[in-house]
């Protein structure tokens, strides 16, 4: 099955699956292949991940060695005080993070906050000097003690900053304005007159690219300013406490966090040429705006791109393996989203079909997409379009990581972890001192989830037990209007209620009754609350409407803090604000408590 991303969460322990018509709700936005064949190295430089260059020689003597080539400014060399295979008595670092995406960055910053001192290999000279001063101990010159480093094989910021959240939101900021400026009806209702709206493709692309650079620099500078040094090179785990960085340097660390993220998943039979058949990595560069583009997969990435492309004038055709579009959303919200985001726009769709073969445009011929029935596998149709965007989910990236050296076998590509992000080996045992966060563990493939998991791990390695409640983590789709959610969908809540023997109730409020939304002429929207009427527990909240992504946090914080409806309904909201939609929602719930 090559379909969309699952939005909701029921169990957070097993990753989403592919290869059948079933989509697991376990991976918030993730759709994952049953075996990660066809992985692309999008964004991860092939030469940086030149696996043949990675030598795992067990007999290689660690040494104070030469510098790795600095690519992001603050890098450097590495030392290893002991042989491979045995845990050294002292470590170069207390915490080593592999992958400087948002997960790794979040962990690193929290480590600083917790008093961890982030030290990089550029400190080797300083370290020698300090050793001299401190009489040869391996303690660096910080009274706070712990030392941390972050290893990155490509550029700081990972998917979110360079190829995900950040550039996509820049494009969506443009599409939102274009949409507004193009809506005569909307402008007229506000009494506005605007001459025809237009755009400069390169200008829009530059906006996305500049934003990514800016945030990447901010991230890099924030780590540098706080004393974080970045070790540039591919990180390969050689054994307990030991990581090779690049081709020749080795570092040791008491604790290791794997935060290696994910890459676009491209199903078999689809040929990506990066020009006419593309993934989100290419689409975010906006090198051209096709007249007609097929988007394979109607999860949140596909949906966001449909918002961008239709606002910029493209016609969109969705190809979706399941029987309905946006299968990961709460069904009622999905229906409303279809009515507002799909039906009135220049979008058509084929559901219940796989794109079994996609051939890029060549020699004046268009992109061809062969569709087969998702259930019978019988040929259904052939589409000819100007471009195809493959938005069939993300596959965890763990190649070259050396998991075999710690006896870890991935499950459908993901690194198995327990609820504390501790890595589990092939025998079901915890691997001491090794954690995995973010997309690579597949619990919830979202930027803020990766970061929250990193923070949770830092809490643990600094002596405070912490288990992250994934059911309190919100998710959002930044279309116009936006969609957001936290907790269970209605079908998931009904299933849980039946299993555990309790009742659920539903409350809803419309944006049509909200003054601020009406003032903006944006009354199309719905907020939905799924809760237990017997004790006021919030099970799930789903919002479709203006700034839904911002509004969801009142609900997610309530779930995180265990706040019940009978308490939150007395919270006061400023008038007139969109937040009154949630105020109304909680007030309309009927709790018997
Ligand atoms: C188009 C798009 C839009 C998205 N929009 C949103 C959104 O709006 N909100 C949201 O929450 N999420 C969004 N996401 C998802 C989000 O980007 C990911 O969930 C998030 O980036 C995962 O973070 P991570 O730290 O786990 O991994 P990544 O961000 O993928 O970072 C992993 C890093 O590890 C490095 N690496 C990998 N292997 C090694 C190695 N062996 N040695 C050294 N370095 C290595 C990589 O180069 C990379 O820099 C979006 C994704 C896409 C594709």
From TrEMBL:
Its EC number is 1.8.1.4. GO terms for biological process: 2-oxoglutarate metabolic process; response to arsenic-containing substance. It is an enzyme of class 1 (oxidoreductase). It is found in: Plastid, Chloroplast stroma. Lipoamide dehydrogenase is a component of the plastidial pyruvate dehydrogenase complex (PDC). Keywords: Chloroplast, Disulfide bond, FAD, Flavoprotein, NAD, Nucleotide-binding, Oxidoreductase, Plastid, Redox-active center, Transit peptide. NAD(+) binds at residues 297-304, 320, 393. Disulfide bonds join 160-165. Homodimer. Part of the plastidial pyruvate dehydrogenase complex (PDC) containing multiple copies of three enzymatic components: pyruvate dehydrogenase (E1), dihydrolipoamide acetyltransferase (E2) and lipoamide dehydrogenase (E3). GO terms for molecular function: dihydrolipoyl dehydrogenase (NADH) activity; flavin adenine dinucleotide binding. InterPro entries: Class-I_Pyr_Nuc-Dis_Oxidored, FAD/NAD-bd_sf, FAD/NAD-binding_dom, FAD/NAD-linked_Rdtase_dimer_sf, Pyr_nuc-diS_OxRdtase, Pyr_nucl-diS_OxRdtase_dimer, Pyr_OxRdtase_I_AS. Residues 473-584 form the Pyridine nucleotide-disulphide oxidoreductase dimerisation domain. It catalyses: N(6)-[(R)-dihydrolipoyl]-L-lysyl-[protein] + NAD(+) = N(6)-[(R)-lipoyl]-L-lysyl-[protein] + NADH + H(+). Residues 60-84 are annotated as: Disordered. The keyword Transmembrane helix does not apply. Belongs to the class-I pyridine nucleotide-disulfide oxidoreductase family. Gene3D superfamilies: 3.30.390.30, FAD/NAD(P)-binding domain. This is dihydrolipoyl dehydrogenase. Residues 93-454 form the FAD/NAD(P)-binding domain.
